[in-house]
Amino acid sequence: MTGKTFSNKVVFISGASSGIGAATAIEFTKEGANVVINGRNETKLKNIYKQCESFGKKPLIIKADISKDEEAKAAIDETIKTFGKLDVLVNNAGFSRSGSILDGNLIASYDEIMATNVRGAMHLTVLAAPHLIKTKGNIINISSVAATAVPLLPQFTPYCVSKAALDHFTRCSALELSKHGIRVNAISPGPVTTDFHINAGLEDLMADRTIPTALNRVSESIEIADIILFLASDKAKGITGSNYLSDNGFLLVH
User: Which SUPFAM superfamilies match (predicted)?
Assistant: First the structure.
């Protein structure tokens, strides 16, 4: 694996069972990293395991719900026990649920979403920070254009709020951890071809809607994975507290 960008680096990816997280796991594996794939769906994680293994390295599967403190701690502990260090944390786990003021389900959806999208990412950051200090590692948080765009439907309100919070946490943690040599950045994708809406139970709401972008296209997960790898690499050693936008011009037309 010599000569590859992330040879012998240890990368923890939450929400790695599909979509952006899965693509990121595969790309890091191609570049020689020891990858930890975390998620709640063990069947899907095993599928990603096989894809990574085909590139010559076996990832560590950790089935855990990062919204639960004891499971998040066990996940980081197992990573350190297995590999002895941590170089990169990718806070990718996130989801949406329908929730709006007038539907009467806003608070329940908000509590559920924030537990993973924000609190889970914050807790993993707290747990990982002592190990990242030792390696001068870095953190990439996967946010969304939803953090700044008015939602297409009111049912997306709690998800949008969660991503706005994650953006601010990125800036705050970047400042606090910079004195220890840790870089923290975010990426805000626009529409991406994933099973996001299906997993969120929102396929009926979105079935007859198109999501226009200035470039008239939707991104693939690997496009976001490529940005993650760039930000995690030494090519981005001067970048921290940033939020990389990859939205095909979504915000230009909304």
Answer: NAD(P)-binding Rossmann-fold domains (SSF51735)
